[in-house]
Amino acid sequence: MKINDIAKSLVSKGKGILAADESTGTMTKRLNAVNVESNEKNRLTFRHALFTSKDINKYISGIILFDETIRQKKNEETICEILNKQNIFPGIKVDKGAKKLAGSKETITEGLDGLRERMEEYFNLGAKFAKWRAVYKIGNELPSQNCIVANAHALARYAAIVQEADMVPIVEPEVLMDGDHNIHKCYDVTSNVLEETVNQLQIAGINFSGVVLKPNMILNGSGSGVKNESNQVAELTLKCIQNNLPPEVPGVAFLSGGQSEFEATKNLNQINKQNKSSFIFTFSYGRALQQSALKTWAKDLNDIETVQTVFDERSKMNSLASKGDWIEDL
């Protein structure tokens, strides 16, 4: 299957991507928060419950995995085999996290060293796409042009290596919600970030028809005290994407970026209600798909069926939102 066909399938109408690529450290924090011990067995049990829910293949096109997960087996089947049986594409997070950018208070995402060899291994394990996240913080004179260019260049180098391995790169430039900035500042910064990201991808010779973009929505800072209005979020998010993204890109899978489950669904729905472009707008959510299921599981680690029902419901709501068909009181 060609990478442009995989990219199109990942953002096919009514389906989105589950981000289940939390590092062991992040997953430990989430499990500890609901008083569940973080060990390999528990991490696998929870993720496997989601991956085998009754209706997952109705709403989920791909799942981003962590290195630990893609190597695991359940009942003698690899995770990739379990997903393939349901026509869900396995993907893999390949960045090594945001590290301090020299001479700055900002960060640069690392993980390019040895990436070509790792992509070959992940391809052989069954991965069909990959993900790399760059992080930008809004603050006093932040993000700097140095941070924007350095991270965009790394995203482009990553994307080139992934496409060389016949896999689809998910390009994730995330402007964080953290801060007291307003929605217009978020728009300006995100526009600058996307413009430079596309510029670096073009320089690297990336095939845009074989890429999925995973950006933030345009939102007020979480510390601003200003409530996000869905109409405004949708209007500015659409304007930002349409002004900066080449038409060859088949679709955009938004990150939830600190929004609640409800907010992430509501804003995605409004974006699709207002969308007049050729772009498909869907979801690539982590917490906004998993949080209710995780809290449910913590009450009874053996009640997998109820956990799956809760997860399927959240997936269905976001599937509807990806078509602009979600109704608030469903």
Characterise this structure.
The chain is globular. The strands form 3 sheets. It has an 8-stranded parallel sheet. Strands 3-4 form a two-stranded antiparallel sheet. A two-stranded antiparallel sheet has the order 6-7. It has helices at 3-10, 24-33, 40-51, 56-59, 67-70, 79-84, 115-125, 145-164, 183-203, 230-244, 261-274, 287-299, 304-321, and strands spanning 16-20, 60-65, 73-74, 77-78, 89-93, 98-100, 107-109, 129-136, 168-175, 212-213, 251-254, 280-285. Helix content is 47%, strand content 16%. The relative contact order is 0.15. The chain has 13 helices and 12 strands.
Helix content: 40-55%
Structure annotation, total helices: 13
Overall geometry? globular
Terminus-to-terminus distance:
37 Å
Overall average pLDDT: 97
Q: What structural category arises from helix and sheet content?
A: alpha/beta
Taking the sheet with the most strands, its summary is: 8 strands, parallel
- Can you list the strand order of the major beta sheet? 10-9-8-5-2-1-12-11
Name the poorly predicted regions. Answer: none
Number of strands: 12
**How big a fraction of the residues is strand?**
15-25%
Radius of gyration: 19 Å
Order of helices and strands: HEHHHEHEEHEEEHEHEHEHEHEHH
Overview features:
330 residues
Summarize the topology:
Blueprint: H1 3-10, E1 16-20, H2 24-33, H3 40-51, H4 56-59, E2 60-65, H5 67-70, E3 73-74, E4 77-78, H6 79-84, E5 89-93, E6 98-100, E7 107-109, H7 115-125, E8 129-136, H8 145-164, E9 168-175, H9 183-203, E10 212-213, H10 230-244, E11 251-254, H11 261-274, E12 280-285, H12 287-299, H13 304-321
